[in-house]
């Protein structure tokens, strides 16, 4: 069972429909028991970092999520959900994230059109493997759909599976052990996005 975490700040239904279309048993989860009894977790997210962290803390699910991740349960963060995995965000202030991954969330330079919205390419990074893992069967220069004004400045480049080029190279897909992140919306990214979601589902043991 894949649990999509409902904390009031995510686009749940489109992710749910994409996973069920792929044949994965999926639920929208809002309780500790649902999270503890799942095989994998997905943390979606839209909106502002501070508001999302407040919703997440108010949900009472943070401790359960952290414990499950610590025990090795696969977790996927999508868009803002991926950014929440990092240590800190500078979106309209300075805010602490979940701290699963090392890095900070910063705004695009003013010389770039913000938000970064639309289709952009995937460029293989140091953690890319075309034969296994989250990047399996994803070729060079495939495209996915982004909507964001802030991006991750990762401290560990070896965790990056794919970059995307938007005036700067930004992490598009990241992975460290059982922790996975996608800056774009895979559920809105046609066949490439569905392949990435399928890869995540197949990583669950």
**In what order do the strands lie side by side in the largest sheet?**
2-1-3-4-14-13-12-9
Low-confidence stretches: none
Distance between the termini: 11 Å
The tally of strands reads 14
Query: Mean pLDDT score, rounded?
Result: 93
Evaluate the radius of gyration: 15 Å
Order of helices and strands: EHEHEHHEHEEEEEEEEEEH
In CATH terms, what is the fold-level topology?
A: Rossmann fold
CATH class: Alpha Beta
For CATH, the homologous superfamily is named as Class I glutamine amidotransferase (GATase) domain
Detailed description of the structure:
It contains 6 helices and 14 strands. It has helices at 12-21, 32-36, 49-59, 62-70, 80-83, 190-202; strands at 2-5, 26-29, 40-43, 75-78, 86-89, 95-96, 101-107, 116-121, 123-124, 143-148, 150-154, 160-165, 169-176, 179-182. The protein has a single domain (2-202), classed as Class I glutamine amidotransferase (GATase) domain (Rossmann fold), CATH 3.40.50.880. A hairpin with a 3-residue loop joins strand 12 and strand 13 (169-176). The strands form 3 sheets. An 8-stranded mixed sheet has the order 2-1-3-4-14-13-12-9. The radius of gyration is 15 Å and the shape is globular. It is 25% helix and 32% strand. By secondary structure, it is α/β, with parallel strands linked by helices.
